[in-house]
Amino acid sequence: MRVRIIFLLKNRGSHIPFHHQYLLAQMIKGVLMKGSDEKYINYSFYNFSGLKGQTKISRKGLHYYSSRVTLVLSSPSKDFIDYFLANLFDFPKVELGALALQPEFVELEEAVEMGEYGKFICISPLVLMNSSFNDSTAKRFIPPETDSFSDLLYESTIQRMASTGDFTDEQIASFYKFQLIPDKNYIARLTAQQKKYARIYPVFDQDVKYEVRGYTFPFTLYAAPEVLDFVFNCGLGQFTHKGFGMLDVANSDPNSRVLKYEFNATVH
Asked: Residue 47: is it exposed, middle or buried by C-beta count within 10 angstroms (0-12/13-18/19+)?
């Protein structure tokens, strides 16, 4: 399931870095630890977007000028989402960089029914490889049209699906169909304009800073409906619980599938 958390922005015009997924990851981790439930403190089957609102760019980063900003959070576990929301709304205010945010209300995006393939856009960058200290492997560029690109995403996806315990060995073995086809026109257009669809991003884990290469482009993914549903809810690639690899359905208006969400405020 996928929810939108709407915050009041108490200090309009304040800023955060252009890429601020690591700040959001730290905030989410802090909220989970506040609840003190060990089942969720190290839970990793969730994904989240960047902070959405009316922005202007400066050398400092993104300045937010809307009265409200939105964070999209997704997970296959309703219990996890309710646990996070119940603890988040215990705080009268949370700070994100220089932003002072007050949790206001939550909206639920209606579920998307998956078929044998899905056309997606990247809300946050796809990361293909895990990183380790003093190792530049995760920064290596891999062309999106190659089998290696698809294979790395397939391996991480199947490994994560198996580790949930929600699928039998027979089901996991049946999920062999997996092929990512990038939107070649989009990539060619950006290349011609000398714009980038692949950049180096920071990731923090155990207080250690890593650098990884992330990709942002539209694509079609051919896979079983269960696999498509998993990556839509949990993200695609590595570091999804750090805010990477969040997808949305291409050519759709997410505002047309929003419902008011009343979460269980007693789960914390």
From this structure: buried
b/e map of 93-125 (b: 16 or more CB within 10 Å)? eeebbebbbebeebbbbeebebeeebebbbbbb
- Report whether pLDDT(126) > 70: yes
Domain at 117-249: CATH code:
3.30.70.1900
> What CATH code is assigned to 2-111+254-260?
3.30.70.1890
Q: How crowded is residue 38: how many other Cβ atoms within 10 Å of its Cβ?
A: 9
Residues 150-205 pLDDT 10s: 999 999 999 999 999 999 999 999 999 999 999 999 999 998 888 899 999 988 88
Residue 84 makes CB contacts below 8 A (sequence gap 6+) with 28, 31, 32, 35, 40, 46, 73
pTM for the whole structure: 0.90
Q: Strand, coil or helix: what is 156?
A: helix
Distance CA 55, CA 44 (A): 29
Q: Of 59, 51, 138, give the one whose Cα is nearest residue 97.
A: 51
Per-domain residue ranges of the chain: 2-111+254-260, 117-249
Question: Is pLDDT at 265 greater than 70 in this prediction?
Answer: no
Find out whether 64 and 10 touch, Cβ atoms under 8 Å: no
Answer yes or no: same fold for 2-111+254-260 and 117-249: yes
